[in-house]
Specification:
Number of domains: 1
Shape: globular
Helix content: 10-25%
Largest sheet: 6 strands, mixed
Structural class: alpha+beta
CATH superfamily: tt1808, chain A
Strand order of the largest sheet: 3-6-8-9-10-11
CATH class: Alpha Beta
Strand content: 25-35%
Number of strands: 13
Number of helices: 5
Distance between the termini: 48 Å
């Protein structure tokens, strides 16, 4: 029999540590999970997405936020970060620190080899409990490919995929269109 010797951390303790930390980490069920840094391609794709969405949301009631905005999933207790976040209307924040959002409309993850299974699976299971969430995008960094999950009226999620640089990803929940060529602007793929 093995005994788990990791200390249990409360959400309040996690937030205090996280706000003072130099590196980001996630939190779930009393455990803090460290996050790794991103590659140049990953960062470039995220920056392209933020630029494109931000330009289209200018002057509207929605806003785009970077991967530094922490997301709290109240139903499951997960504290995490997405690479790109869009929120519409008044942001619902977890506390008076204004750094933990609970009502994202769109979450976008740029897939990394070490996190793609988690982003597609467990993390999406948590995200789906967010009533505000309308769309979830998974963006490949090793080839042009975007997987888009859109919440339907009945609560189910519909998957659509784009894998052509000439294609456009439509985000109806925030009224944006993302040209695949713009998502992958300046990104070089290995042959």
């Amino acid at each position: 029999m093995t005994v788990d010797t990791r200390p249990f951390v409360t959400p309040e303790e996690y937030l205090a540590l996280e706000r003072a930390a130099e590196r980001k980490s996630e939190y779930l069920d009393g455990e803090i999970i460290g996050m790794t840094g991103a590659s140049r391609r990953h960062s470039l794709i995220a920056a392209n997405l933020i630029r494109e969405i931000g330009q289209q949301l200018k002057g509207r009631s929605c806003e785009v936020l970077t991967g530094d905005m922490r997301i709290r999933v109240p139903a499951t207790g997960l504290y995490t970060y997405a690479d790109v976040v869009a929120v519409c209307g008044e942001p619902a924040l977890a506390d008076g620190h204004f750094d933990t959002l609970t009502n994202p409309a769109v979450l976008i993850e740029v897939l990394s080899p070490s996190t793609q299974d988690y982003d597609r699976g467990t993390k999406f299971v948590h995200y789906r409990t967010l009533d505000s969430l309308r769309e979830y995008l998974l963006v490949s960094q090793d080839r042009p490919r975007v997987e888009q999950y859109t919440r339907q009226e009945d609560g189910n999620w519909l998957l659509s995929e784009k894998a052509d640089l000439a294609a456009t990803v439509i985000l109806p929940s925030i009224g944006c269109q993302l040209a695949m060529a713009e998502i992958y602007d300046r990104v070089r793929f290995e042959t």
